[in-house]
Amino acid sequence: MQTILIVGTGFAGMWSALSAMRLIEQNGGSEASGIRVIVISPEPTLVIRPRLYESDADKMCVSLEELFRVTGIQFVPGMVDTIDTAQKRATIIDMMGIHSALDYDRLVLAAGSHLKRPNIPDIHEHAFSIDQRDEAANLDKHLNHLAFEPPHPARNTIVIVGGGFTGIEIAAEMPSRLRSILRSEDVRVVIIEQADAIGPELGPGPRPVILEALAGLGVEYKLGAAVVSVDKTGVVTSRGERIDSLTVIWTGGVEASALTQQVPGQRDRSGRLHVSSDLRVPSVPDIYVTGDAALAIADDQGHHALMSCQHAMRLGRFAGHNAASDLLALAPKPYAQPAYGTCLDLGPWGAVITQGWDRQVQLTGSAAKTIKENINQVVIYPPKADRAEAFAAADPDSAGPTLA
């Protein structure tokens, strides 16, 4: 039996598996076609990563076990250690540390991304992050423990390193969250951003709204400054300023999974592999790359998919479909995602919604917040564990979400 091996159960990995299995089902099923779909990940869960800036981060995941069962997708617990592209074989380490090998006919690399941590003294020991569920849960635990610390400016101050999308969302969330924990109005939240503007990658469109919201929430920001050292009681910036804080949260950019380095091909500065329109690696035609690991052209204007769940979900649908199409000798579907929107959570102030790559503001405040909550709590969640419903949702020609 031929094998489509999918690495990862994030948004791209889950939708790749469902989309591949959908096409196999349409062509007689696994038994008739002789094709099986296997997914590898430490757990059969989808982490709702866009919500890790919220409280109760440890609950931001959904089991995929039943969904995989009803759709005929096989799950193998473990982590892919090596990819041998010549032998078409992946080496897997299970939860007990035991190595095994699994051969594939087509591999879909949906291993995602991780936070980029620069070589700054003590950053790993003393800076928190919300990059992964366990890290966000650790921050949750730390914040709640602050209530037992003696009152002190460092206790009451949170420093957010990075004023991009993630940094803004966590910063907007923190003032009310910290006040609730400490039962005190005397809190301080500071963003440190090395660019000369907040949200540099978001452009000028939503910036006035973001600045209005941060001002209303009492969030400070220091621009044109980088953090040069971190210790257990604060940070020092490139301007020589020290800010005392027991809570430093690092949000400074992401890079693709290290597994992309094992696949021959061209990469961008974030480690993403360049892929063709069918999401295949040109130099290794047996491998498809999707989600945050892929540098894919999204439209005929030359825009590239971003490292976001709105792109990962659609990328996954196309990658899985095309991997199955290849084995079934069917024509692939070229990936495209011309519609693009952004919905940025701004805490109790509300949210801001933009449309288009130039991010023209469409909606702000509480009305935008309602849409953001629907995206976070409904739109990005997996389909129900119903075979017909799941396969319908996995159709690459379905519209999918256009905001994230």
From TrEMBL:
<keyword id="KW-0560">Oxidoreductase</keyword>
<dbReference type="GO" id="GO:0019646">
    <property type="term" value="P:aerobic electron transport chain"/>
</dbReference>
<dbReference type="GO" id="GO:0003955">
    <property type="term" value="F:NAD(P)H dehydrogenase (quinone) activity"/>
</dbReference>
<keyword id="KW-0285">Flavoprotein</keyword>
<protein>
    <submittedName>
        <fullName>FAD/NAD(P)-binding domain-containing protein</fullName>
    </submittedName>
</protein>
<dbReference type="InterPro" id="IPR023753">
    <property type="entry name" value="FAD/NAD-binding_dom"/>
</dbReference>
<keyword id="KW-0274">FAD</keyword>
<comment type="similarity">
    <text>Belongs to the NADH dehydrogenase family.</text>
</comment>
<dbReference type="InterPro" id="IPR036188">
    <property type="entry name" value="FAD/NAD-bd_sf"/>
</dbReference>
<feature type="domain" description="FAD/NAD(P)-binding">
    <location>
        <begin position="4"/>
        <end position="314"/>
    </location>
</feature>
<dbReference type="Pfam" id="PF07992">
    <property type="entry name" value="Pyr_redox_2"/>
</dbReference>
<dbReference type="InterPro" id="IPR051169">
    <property type="entry name" value="NADH-Q_oxidoreductase"/>
</dbReference>
